[in-house]
Every structure is written in C-alpha cells, then in structure tokens.
C-alpha cells in the first residue's frame, strides 16, 4: 500500500505531492535557505500527510473501488492556502492545505484548557488575542466530485482559466467547474453503441497550458486528438489528429500494444507535446499532424523481448514522461529502476539508476548502460539481468530548477543538478 | 528475467541459437508461435474476468491482438482447416462433459482454480489443430483448469468456430460492461436440455444467484453432495415411515 502511484510538483516547485496505492497523499516542502544551514536549501521535508481516498464498494456491480491515487494536480496558488486535486478510479477531490500558526487566547466563556467557565464568576469581558503556536498544517476536503465516471479515471488536468478542469476515463472526458460538484459536462464520448465494437480507449488527456479552449487526448491505438471546445459542445470531432504512419517492416502482433500511448504532456511553452508509448518518447509539433518531430528510444533492447513481456504483462506498464522547465530536456522511466533523460538540443541521452546503493547523499549518479548483445563490458548490465519488477513509472521535474523526483515502487528519490 | 504465470511457450526473436541441427529444431514454426500467442491471449482475457474490475485498456488491447491473429489465420486458411476438424470431435466433447459432470463432487472441487466467469465460450480452443488430441486427454483427467470450465459450461452444439469466437469476444465485452452476479443465470440460459442429470445441481445453483461468482462455483460442488445425500436420506425416511405404518397397522 506504500507503492507510489503519482508524483507532482506545484507551480512554484516549493511543494511536491505524492499519492500512493493506499490512498494517502504526502506533501513535501522545500527547505528555505538559511545562513545556519547553507546546504539545507534544496532539501524537501514532509509538510503534510493525509488520507485522501478510502476503499469503497460499488453495490450495484459488486466490485471494490480501489483507493489508489491515480493522479494529483495542483491548482495555481491564489492565496495563502494551497489547493490540489487528487483522484482515484471514480472520485476526484479538491483538498485545501493550509497552515495555522496562531491561536486565539482569552476567551470569555471557556478557560485556556477548554473547560467552561462558571458564568457567575465572569466579572468582565475581554477580547481574545492571537498568540503564536507551533505550525500546524491542515488538509481538508473542500469539494468532492463523484459519480460522473463509469470507467476508470486515468487523467485530470486543470485548465489555464483556473476555474475548470477535465477528468478522463477509458471512454469519456468530463469538464467540471471547481465550484460545482453536482454537475459536469461530457465533452468527449467514444463509447460505441455496441460495446462489442470497442477497439480503442482513451489513455490520457491534458489541457493546453495557455489556451483554455484546447485540450488533447491520447488513445490505445497510438493516436492523439486535439480538440477545441469552441467548435462544439461535444468534442467528438477533433480539430487535429496526430498519428505516425506505421513502419511496415517492424510490424508484429505486438505493434498495436506497444503503440498505445501511456502519457501525453504539453511543453511549458505550449508549442509541443510529448507522448510516451512502450518503447519510445515522441515530441510533436502542434502544427504538424502527420509525424512527430523527434523520437527517442527509451529501451529499444526490449523490442526482441516483447513476447515475454506480453506474457508477464509488463508490456501493459504505463510509463509517464515529463519536460524540464525550459523544455530542453525530457525524462521518462524504464525498468531496473533506470530512468532516462534526453537533451533535445545536443541529442545526448543518459541512463541513471534510482537505488539505495547508487544514491548516497550528495553522491553523483553514475550513468548506466545496458548491453544488448555480445560481450558485456564491465559496469554494463545485460538485458536478461534487468529486474522487471523495479519499474519507474512516475517522475517529475521542478518547474524552474534542475530538481527531479523519481518514484521507484515505494521509495521517492530526489536528485538535483550537480552544477549548483 | 522475471516471468510469472504460464509456462513459456513462445520464443523471442534473437535467442542465441547456433546453426546446428539441434538449433534448427528449436526454432518454432510461425504457426506454432502464433498459436501459442493466441492461447496465451485467451487465457489472459479469461483471467480478466476473474479480477475485481478488469482493466479495460488491457482487455481491449488483448482482444485486438486476438482478433488480429484470427484475421490472419482466416486469410491463411488455417482457420478453415481447424473448423472441419472440430465437427468430428464434437461428440467426444459431449462424452467428456458427461463424464466430468457425473464424477463425485469432491473430485470436482479438487480440480483447481475453476475460473467461473464462464460466459466466455472456449470450445474453439479445444478444437484447434495441433494440440487438440492432447487437449482431449487432459480434459478427461480434469487436471487442466482451462478445459474443465469449457466442458462444464459448454452445453450448446458446436457451431461455426468463427461465430463462437466472435460471440465469445462479444460476451467478454458485455461482461466487462455489466459485471453482475446475474451472469451465473446467463451461464445457465444456454444449458442444453439433454443434460437432465444437471437438474439437481442447477436447482442448487439458481437459489444462489445473488452470490459472487466464486461463491457460486463453490456451491457447485456442494449441491451435488447434499442432493444425493438428501435423496438417500429421504428415501430412508420414507422407508422408515412405510415400515412404521405397516408395523402400526
């Protein structure tokens, strides 16, 4: 139940939220730089922990609803409190995280320890005063958005208007207003009239970072559709359709499965989007629909192992991907606790490992290499020795600095750029 | 490399095979590979039914793969060949089914892991070319969990395999859509009326339709027991009663 299922920095990067399989949310806060501890800047400590979702039972279908947090998305900060959306398979919740560092003292009707004062003994009125107290961080659910999804929610995305957000499940996408919980608008519905004809599902969806009327959603067939909410109320007809033509020479029975997109993310500047399928990461220019502008192979050495990966279900693993603040580097996870970074400008890529042995505090990570055949060099690891249970599905990059958070099963690793 | 579940039947591309005679034997034919992939996919789909709530994306991807294989096999002509073989073995299927049903309930309960979400019809699996004979023998020994449900639940006459196949896929999606205990009733709506000895068991089952799938299966073995026991007991009681009357009078 401690397995981390989502990782997300907030807009300033000061807070880092993680959600786990047990329905808990843990928020880390960055330490402020201080003269007494000059090295402490950059450390994240636990700020708040709360139980976001509980397991539920759907009586109609006799099925349990998992409490696992599928996604967390922060809202842009508008006042002293922080807000985030967290979702499991069926219900989205808006949480308010606020600090309390003062308490009122000098009540008239009760003592400092809470006991009621005898009214006869009260001779004068006094005005309560605020006194400082130890910092307390409280998380309270402000809105619960329920009963709008028949299928499992895979994505939530806050709109740039900061008033609405979308939630996507396997077949539908709904638009919500943050203030209204009893109503949502269905904007995409790909459920066929006859379920027997179902061949494609929605795998991820995201709003454009600047244009509040634009969003994209990806499918299990490797396609991305960009929709404009101004064109019609129901966005079943896309405005743009992104698909790379299949390479006939590499076609196999697994072609469709490995083309299924597991994550889609807009770049910060809003000009590009990145998609992750099983073996690669692709960068698309929003103005070019017929092919991606860049393709990066994450673990091409697995292409010859697809049958075994199908057998043990690893082929269905959903890896996420992320951009750095400048949109110059992209990062995604792999197996054996490896994660990969691709520099778009230099075209150089790195493989790093998130493990206790290689991650002593302040130690520099050594690049790893997977040997694909022939003689294995020293320090290389062969494909057959990879641990497919150790998968890095969730990673996050600080919005402005070179800080990354990598979730390896039930451990969270934080790395920073050595150039400080 | 971590592998769980099924025994490995498929071979990945670049295995280190020397060009010896032994090496050449180790390379499976494309058909065999395709066949094992089909089998694996079908088992995966059936396992989907067993989960609390199946992952729709995964199910859709596996179903598409199965459809793809089927289409290719149809084009190959392999599908037709398997079809003709099946009708010959239809009667054998029935014999085996009756055999299983008539066994004692204890033996049935021992047959491991009976996946109960059985609207998925698997008769075409037992009919496929290469390992059909093996399937039949394993079915009769009631060891292979795959074949037990297919023979127990498969009451209808073997039809066009393709039709069944499509129907099975449809049923998978329907079950995915409406997951309810009533599927137990659906199972029995297809029961062939010639199996009169099923009546007692069915009665036992029908009264438990509100239970979950696994529960339903567990009671499958017990009604047989109680039915036969109670029959014996009632017989004895009746006999006693008659004797009493005779004695009294």
TrEMBL record, chain A:
PANTHER family (alphabetical): PROTEIN PHOSPHATASE PP2A REGULATORY SUBUNIT B (PTHR11871)
Naturally occurring in which organism (per UniProt): Tachuris rubrigastra
Taxonomic placement: Eukaryota, Metazoa, Chordata, Craniata, Vertebrata
Xref: InterPro entries: PP2A_PR55, PP2A_PR55_CS, WD40/YVTN_repeat-like_dom_sf, WD40_repeat_dom_sf, WD40_rpt
GO MF entries: protein phosphatase regulator activity
Protein keywords: Repeat, WD repeat
Record family assignment: Belongs to the phosphatase 2A regulatory subunit B family.
Protein name in the entry: Serine/threonine-protein phosphatase 2A 55 kDa regulatory subunit B
Highest rank taxon of the organism: Eukaryota
From TrEMBL, chain B:
Transmembrane segments: none
Domain SERTA: 30-77
InterPro entries with a match to the protein in the record: E2F-SERTA_domain_protein (IPR052262), SERTA_dom (IPR009263)
Ranges of compositional bias, category Polar residues: 129-147
GO cellular component, one term: nucleus
Region (Disordered) location: 112-147
PROSITE patterns attached to this UniProt entry: SERTA
Leader sequence segment: none
Name under which the protein is recorded: CDCA4 protein
């Amino acid at each position: 139940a401690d397995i981390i299922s989502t990782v997300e920095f907030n807009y300033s990067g000061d807070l880092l939220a993680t959600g786990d399989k047990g329905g808990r949310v843990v928020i880390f806060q960055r330490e402020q730089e201080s003269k007494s501890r000059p090295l402490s800047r950059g450390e994240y400590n636990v700020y708040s922990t709360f139980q976001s979702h509980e397991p539920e039972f759907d009586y109609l279908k006799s099925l349990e609803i998992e409490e696992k947090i599928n996604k967390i998305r922060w809202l842009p900060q508008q006042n002293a409190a922080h807000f985030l959306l967290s979702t499991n398979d069926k219900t989205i919740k808006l949480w308010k995280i606020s600090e309390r560092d003062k308490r009122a003292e000098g009540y008239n009707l009760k003592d400092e320890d809470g006991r009621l004062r005898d009214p006869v003994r009260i001779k004068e009125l006094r005005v309560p005063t605020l006194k400082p107290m130890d910092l307390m961080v409280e998380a309270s659910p402000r809105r619960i958005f329920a009963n709008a999804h028949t299928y499992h929610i895979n994505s939530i995305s806050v709109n740039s208007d900061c008033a609405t957000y979308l939630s996507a499940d396997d077949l539908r996408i709904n638009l919500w207003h943050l203030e209204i919980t009893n109503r949502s608008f269905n904007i995409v519905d790909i459920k066929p009239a006859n379920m027997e004809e179902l061949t494609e599902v929605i795998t991820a969806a995201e709003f454009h970072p600047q244009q509040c009327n634009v969003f994209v959603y990806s499918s299990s067939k490797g396609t991305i559709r960009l929709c404009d909410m101004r064109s019609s109320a129901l966005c079943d007809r896309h405005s743009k359709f992104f698909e790379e033509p299949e390479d006939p020479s590499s076609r196999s029975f697994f072609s469709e499965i490995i083309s299924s997109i597991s994550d889609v993310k807009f770049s910060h500047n809003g000009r590009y989007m990145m998609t992750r399928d099983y073996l690669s990461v692709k960068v698309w220019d929003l103005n070019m629909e017929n092919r991606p502008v860049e393709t990066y192979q994450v673990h091409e050495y697995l292409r010859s192992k697809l049958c075994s990966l199908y057998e043990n279900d690893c082929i269905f693993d959903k890896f996420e991907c992320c951009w750095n603040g400048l949109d110059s580097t992209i990062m995604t996870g792999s197996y054996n606790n490896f994660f990969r970074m691709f520099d778009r400008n230099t075209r150089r890529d790195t493989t790093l490992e998130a493990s206790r042995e290689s991650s002593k505090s302040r130690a520099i990570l050594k690049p790893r290499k997977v040997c694909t055949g022939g003689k294995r060099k020293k320090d290389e690891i062969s494909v057959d020795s990879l641990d497919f249970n150790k998968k890095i599905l969730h990673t996050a990059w600080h919005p402005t600095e070179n800080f990354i958070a990598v979730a390896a099963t039930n451990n969270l690793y934080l790395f920073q750029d050595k150039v400080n | 490399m971590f592998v769980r579940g099924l025994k490995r039947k498929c071979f990945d591309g670049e295995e280190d095979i020397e060009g010896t005679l032994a090496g050449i034997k180790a390379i499976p034919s494309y058909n065999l590979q395709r066949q094992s992939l089909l089998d694996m996919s079908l088992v995966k789909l059936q396992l989907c039914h067993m989960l609390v709530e199946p992952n729709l994306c995964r199910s859709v991807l596996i179903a598409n793969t199965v459809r793809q294989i089927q289409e290719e096999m149809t084009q190959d002509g392999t599908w037709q060949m398997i079809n003709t073989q099946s009708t010959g073995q239809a009667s054998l299927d029935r014999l085996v089914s009756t055999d299983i049903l008539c066994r004692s309930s204890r033996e049935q309960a021992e047959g491991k892991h009976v996946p109960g979400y059985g609207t998925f019809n698997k008769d075409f699996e037992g009919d496929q070319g290469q390992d059909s004979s093996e399937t039949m023998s394993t079915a009769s020994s009631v060891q292979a969990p795959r074949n037990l449900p297919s023979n127990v639940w498969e009451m209808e006459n073997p039809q066009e395999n393709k039709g069944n196949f499509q129907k099975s896929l449809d049923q998978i999606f329907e079950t995915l859509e409406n997951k309810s205990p009533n599927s137990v009733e659906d199972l029995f709506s297809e029961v062939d009326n010639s199996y009169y000895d099923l009546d007692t068991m069915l009665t036992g089952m029908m009264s438990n339709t509100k239970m979950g799938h696994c529960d339903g299966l567990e009671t499958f073995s017990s009604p047989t027991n109680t039915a036969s026991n109670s029959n014996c007991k009632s017989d004895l009681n009746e006999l006693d009663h008659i004797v009493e009357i005779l004695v009294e009078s």
